[in-house]
Amino acid sequence: xxxxxxxxxxxxxxxxxxxxxxxxxxxxxxxxxxxxxxxxxxxxxxxxxxxxxxxxxxxxxxxxxxxxxxxxxxxxxxxxxxxxxxxxxxxxxxxxxxxxxxxxxxxxxxxxxxxxxxxxxxxxxxxxxxxxxxxxxxxxxxxxxxxxxxxxxxxxxxxxxxxxxxxxxxxxxxxxxxxxxxxxxxxxxxxxxxxxxxxxxxxxxxxxxxxxxxxxxxxxxxxxxxxxxxxxxxxxxxxxxxxxxxxxxxxxxxxxxxxxxxxxxxxxxxxxxxxxxxxxxxxxxxxxxxxxxxxxxxxxxxxxxxxxxxxxxxxxxxxxxxxxxxxxxxxxxxxxxxxxxxxxxxxxxxxxxxxxxxxxxxxxxxxxxxxxxxxxxxxxxxxxxxxxxxxxxxxxxxxxxxxxxxxxxxxxxxxxxxxxxxxxxxxxxxxxxxxxxxxxxxxxxxxxxxxxxxxxxxxxxxxxxxxxxxxxxxxxxxxxxxxxxxxxxxxxxxxxxxxxxxxxxxxxxxxxxxxxxxxxxxxxxxxxxxxxxxxxxxxxxxxxxxxxxxxxxxxxxxxxxxxxxxxxxxxxxxxxxxxxxxxxxxxxxxxxxxxxxxxxxxxxxxxxxxxxxxxxxxxxxxxxxxxxxxxxxxxxxxxxxxxxxxxxxxxxxxxxxxxxxxxxxxxxxxxxx
Length: 673
Prior knowledge:
With 673 residues, the protein is of the alpha/beta class. It is built from 24 helices and 31 strands. The strands form seven sheets. Strands 27-28-26-29-25-30-31 form a seven-stranded mixed β-sheet, sandwiched between helices. Strands 3, 4, 5, 14 and 15 form a five-stranded mixed β-sheet that branches. It has a four-stranded mixed β-sheet with strand order 2-16-18-17, with helices on one face. It is globular.
């Protein structure tokens, strides 16, 4: 067990891009589907956590080639068209429910296989009976050490290599059903019928959609039976992007509710209508008072104007109920969470665990923890407002929250502890065994800490090919800043002026053309781009020979620079409204003219030979020396190193070394007392 972690409350609003990892549910499904495909699949945005590592290790033990790059968040696996290389193996699944259930059905496809499976003590208590009983209909036998039929871990699975017509009781977990559905296309003529109903239906829909994405759509009839009309090996997906984890995102949707006015958190890639049903938490949050704004593929969460209670059914997205439960003591009215009985058989009895820890904080919950212990069928929890009780319970020091080896308990109470209960920043909650978050979100507390920052404006200036763009983009990505390339602004305006027939030596033609341009912004990923009447110029059109030859001439005109100045300064407000931790703006007069009050100002330089080589390597034909002369001698906003800026000569430095220097400057400026 790792050392207890006191949670320091936020004394300033949370701000920045939340570092949400890839979805565990998608990553583990994708790994199994790719292993059953014919050919190689590359996953981007993959989750690296205890659960996914367990599945990766199992696949390698079974003889599959899996290459991983945690820094790049990529996985590469070569599928063998449904063949499992090793007919015998010993596999340990830890407490990974998805790996445990998915592997068991996956192994059933091996003819005459014999596999010994075991897990942690907690996994031995989790539901497996429905899946093991269904597989007996496929000729499989799951046996205990004494030779009797097994209903849970550990067991030895003897397989027949086919499925047949199976009936599964998935009332305890939808994973029992999803495991069989993923194996279904590899057994021609087979079917899977669900007995009764299951929980967390959106996870079944996720499985159906992913089977189709890998080339084997399933058909479900009205009676609750699935078949694959075109059975066979899955088709390798080539490159497959893993969505950010919607359950993990729920913690950052909740965080602005507890960190005060002015909060702004951005969730990149939060796909409403994607594969994950847990995005439904955002709708619950709105009903409780959350201020949410969709911006393309991102969700921006600002300070909740109010935190209200309510009555909610969490059956379909139950992994997120703990997030709401820990906010509930701060709400203005009681919060009732229904249909979560199945979570009592997950990593721990989550309903009982939540009630127990809230009671230790002085919170009134119905039913009580004692009542939950006495009746395992209870599936609803009502939590009453309790700010005064929280203060009384923690007046003598932080209360240690027992996490029960459950990652979601640790993360949910980490959000609650971020609330400045006493108004003086003193910790009042401490998390026992915080590293239990490694199951799905190893760097959760680092991600939480990264949002404890103030908004920072960063100016990066330098001549052509001095490394401005490369440096600014990496710093923006790593620190959650909005990237603004003012060079692209001037190129865009130059393109528009040339298209309008304006000439740099004819001020009247330039003024007339500028008057017809209407500027706007479009955020794509972490970068802001200039638009004309809502349309963004194509990148290729900005790097043509005529633009390269004219951009410095147009940029030297006071009319053009003044036309863009207010727009460029407005990017700071855009970054604040969009939930970024700051703005990093690159150009030639940012620190001297556009953002002279920027908290960080950097001037990059390199010798002309090195810069010319960089441009040539990019396939560009800029005359670097000529552009330097034009930029540095123009009357309006010439290229200079602003007084007080940090000068970095990167002639002989790697990009990584330059980025490290700039990041250190930004982090120092953003650090709060």
